[in-house]
Amino acid sequence: MQVPVMNVSGQQVSTIDLPADIFEVEVNTGLMHQAYVRQMANARLGTHSTQRRGEVSRTSAKWYRQKGTGRARHGSRDATQFVGGGRPKGPKPHKYTKDMPRKMRRQAIRCTLSALARDNQLVFVDRLALESPKTQQMRQTLAAIVGADTSALVLLAERNENVERSISNLENAQYLRASYLNVRDLLKFDKVVVPLDALEVIKSIWGREERDNG
């Protein structure tokens, strides 16, 4: 697959060939969904907790006399139907983590990249650098590359404080290290901006099938 490469002004400066084993695989939406559900489940803390009937701190004395009131017979106020009583079958801390084989996780990333490439949501730029953190300059750069009202995920090959701080102040943009690709972030934005150095990182991590067996 041949795609254009833009500069920071939004002008095409060259073209490159994308490796087919990353950007032209058969898109398996079921696999992508499974990877997404796993990622969201693993992000849950699972620390929610409620007090059951035996855990609430209330008096154990009988609420009112057994007979003569015309009311139902109750022995304590910690019953679940009363305000301040225990909660029936409430949640307790537990893990939500899901497992997924490494081959499937890696293939899900390839499927996601292939789907984005198929739908022209990947934008490749020759380089993305700033001499100092400039939010307005980054806003103008992204507007020239992807459009003014388009949300964008910017992939970085390595830590770049000037670019990261400039993007952090933008409401419709986010940065991500290319080595941390995940289904949720890739599908969250309208466009994914890929500098050529970040593309090399993607190739080195997801480009060789034998890595799946490592």
Notes on the protein architecture:
- The protein is an alpha/beta fold and 214 residues long.
- The chain folds into two domains: 2-44 and 98-213, Ribosomal protein L4/L1 (Ribosomal Protein L4, Chain: A, 3-Layer(aba) Sandwich); 47-95, no CATH class.
- The protein contains seven helices and six strands.
- It has helices at residues 20-23, 29-42, 102-118, 135-145, 161-168, 183-188, 196-206, and strands at residues 2-6, 12-17, 122-125, 152-156, 173-177, 191-195.
- It has a six-stranded mixed β-sheet with strand order 2-1-3-6-4-5.
- Strand 4 (152-156), helix 5 and strand 5 (173-177) form a beta-alpha-beta unit.
- Helix 2 (29-42) packs across helix 3 and helix 4 (135-145) packs across helix 5 (161-168).
- It is elongated, with a radius of gyration of 27 Å.
| CATH third-level topology of the largest domain | Ribosomal Protein L4, Chain: A
- The overall number of domains is 2
Largest sheet properties: 6 strands, mixed
Cα distance spanning the termini: 27 Å
DSSP strand content: 5-15%
Q: What gyration radius follows from the Cα positions, in whole Å?
A: 27 Å
The number of E-state strands comes to 6
Q: What is the helix fraction of residues, given as a range?
A: 25-40%
| Full CATH superfamily name of the largest domain | Ribosomal protein L4/L1
Structural class: alpha/beta
Low-confidence stretches: none
How is the quaternary structure best described? single chain
Give the number of helices.
Answer: 7
Residue-averaged pLDDT: 91
- SSE succession: EEHHHEHEHEHEH
Strand order of the largest sheet: 2-1-3-6-4-5
- Under the CATH scheme, which class of the largest domain? Alpha Beta
Shape: elongated
Q: Which architecture of the largest domain per CATH?
A: 3-Layer(aba) Sandwich
